[in-house]
Structure formats: C-alpha cells, structure tokens
Write a structure and sequence with these properties.
This protein is an all-beta fold. Helix content is 0%, strand content 56%.
C-alpha cells in the first residue's frame, strides 16, 4: 500500500527484484518485491499515470500519462532524465523495444509513436487506428509492433519502416491489451467483452 488513488499498471524489473506501479495519484512507485517496501516515489507527471514499463536492462523506467507525455526515469536514482512530447492526448501504453533503444507509445490521439530512447526524438508516427490505442507491444525479435485499439482492430506494423503489414479485426470488440508469444508466432489479445483470443500472425 502507498498510492492514494487507483493503480493503473504494474511492471516487474527484469531481474525480478523490484516492481513498479503507475497511479492516478500522478506518481510512479518502485517497490522491493521481497519485502513489499516502497523504496522510491517518482513525482513529475502533472496528471494521472496510466502505464509504466522497465527497460530490458533494468536501468530505466518509462511512464505514460494523461498529461500527454512519456517520461524516462533513472530507476536507481528516481530521476526523470527525459520527457517525450508529441502526443495530442493521453498516453495509455508504453513499451520498450527488446534492445532497449526505442520506445513505442499508444495514445488516445489514435496514433502510435516510436521514440529514440536516448535522444527522446520521435522518429515515427504510425497512423491507422480510428479510436484510442490501448496497447502497444514489440515482437521478441524487435522487427514488428502490434497495437490494439478500441476501434476493434489490432494492427501489425513493420517497426523499421512504419508500414502497416496486417490488420486483425473483430465485428465488435474493444481491444484493451495485446502481447506476443516468446517465439513471435502468435499474439494474444483481451477485450472488453471478457474474451481472450490467440491469433496466428506468421
């Protein structure tokens, strides 16, 4: 316990020693997974924080907020080292590329953005959804991105070129989360109808 409002997202550190949590109280907290103690509170966002994700090397955290920004934090010191600005509405989801060089973000502005994590520059904006993008996820090999939206579609993108490769569509269903299988051959999705689906994508 420690947040004063809803907790929207949690994420394990790669070594399994820590947890991070994002909350409507505008903070990200880092917890010792073994003791349950809050060891750090990250406070810079101006509005609710909807998502948090550890970098693959465990050195950084990325958080997305209703304040329309993505922030990158030094996890050890709890310092915000970079603010990524460019979305015109709340940031709902963030995800690191497997090599840790890039971040993807999904937003209520109906776009996915790819950022250079080191410079903070937006290198690509992916447009194709017609409603909020609730989830973004890199394929294990880093070549593809999947984005799930409340427009009832999942789009698979070429992460390098930004080209739309495939659209998975439901007659009705508001996608809330998507995730790749470890071998990259499947996607799993969940929607607001309470349904989990596995999709063959290769």
């Amino acid at each position: 316990e420690g947040h004063s409002k809803y907790v929207n997202s949690v994420s394990w550190s790669p070594d399994g020693k820590y947890l991070s949590s994002a909350s409507d109280d505008k903070t990200v907290k880092i917890w010792d997974a073994k003791s349950g103690e809050c060891i750090r509170t990250l406070e810079v966002h101006l509005k609710d924080v909807w998502y948090v994700s550890w970098s693959p090397d465990g050195k950084y955290l990325a958080s997305g907020s209703v304040d329309k920004t993505v922030k990158i934090w030094n996890a050890k010191h709890g310092v915000c080292i970079r603010t990524l600005e460019g979305h015109s509405n709340r940031v709902i989801s963030v995800c690191w590329s497997p090599d840790g060089k890039y971040l993807a973000s999904g937003s209520s502005d109906e776009t996915v953005k790819i950022w250079d994590a080191k410079s903070g520059v937006c290198i690509r904006t992916l447009e194709g959804h017609s409603h909020y993008v609730w989830s973004v996820c890199w394929s294990p090999d880093g070549k593809y991105l999947a984005s799930g939206s409340t427009d009832s579609t999942i789009i698979i993108w070429d992460a390098n070129s930004g080209q739309k490769l495939k659209t998975l569509k439901l007659n009705f269903g508001l996608f809330r989360s998507v995730s790749w299988s470890p071998d990259g051959k499947y996607l799993v999705s969940c929607d607001r109808n309470g349904t989990i689906r596995i999709w063959g994508v290769k």
